[in-house]
Amino acid sequence: MHLLPSVVEMPCLGLLDSSPFTSLLFLHLSVVFLYPSPSAAGNCWLQKAANGRCRGLLQSGVSREECCRHGRPGDAWTAQEVSSGLLFRWLVFSKGAPDCIPCRDSCEGVQCGPGRRCKTSRRGSPRCACAPLCKRSQRKGPVCGADGRTYRHECALLRARCRLRQPDLHAQYAGHCRKSCHDINCPGPTSCLIDQNGDAHCVECSRRPCARRGDGGGSGALCGANGRTYRNLCHLRRAACRHGHAIPVTHTGPCQPT
Fold first, then answer.
1. d(CA 52, CA 59)
2. Would you list the DSSP string of 47-58?
3. Phi and psi (nearest 5°) for 125?
């Protein structure tokens, strides 16, 4: 049995008396330095993969509590405090780290953010799935998205916006995407315009008068594909909105007479 040295046998510590307070203090310091607690540092990972290994290193040298406190659904942790070389071999050659411990086995405490909700996968791990709040009116009839694709209804478009992480994706007009502005009712202040690929879009045409020397979106004369010279980009856009067709720019400067 290992016995701690007495206080009087340790003069280098400057503890020369044997009072109860001094003895308790020395005993505490001896336990701390002679019997250190094991390190709780490990590695935090993005997810536990289907092969049971941790994938996607997020942070090294963290405890499980630190790794799992963020409320992300798929986070996982490994207890080993390993070298950078071994981490590299795990990531490149072993398809992940062994002894992977998922932070959660249910949706309790998971924060998915707006338009998403937590679901449990077949393996029992939680994940955030796209689940936008849709009204009944948003499930009726196809819509044409700003990406030029037809969606079964607006709710399907909202799910695609979430899944593709494209916050600017929105419904342009009701019905299938078309090659003509005929019978297209654009919402609000937007107007129908045929782009250079022949697809119909609802765009907002500025009603502000164009500046004489540019409009901040490009200055100087431009030659349109229709053979006409426009004072600047603003005038070209105004003409396109007025005629309902995009006007491609062939080159900067005035058009050359033919």
1. 19
2. EE-TTS-EEEEE
3. -100, 145
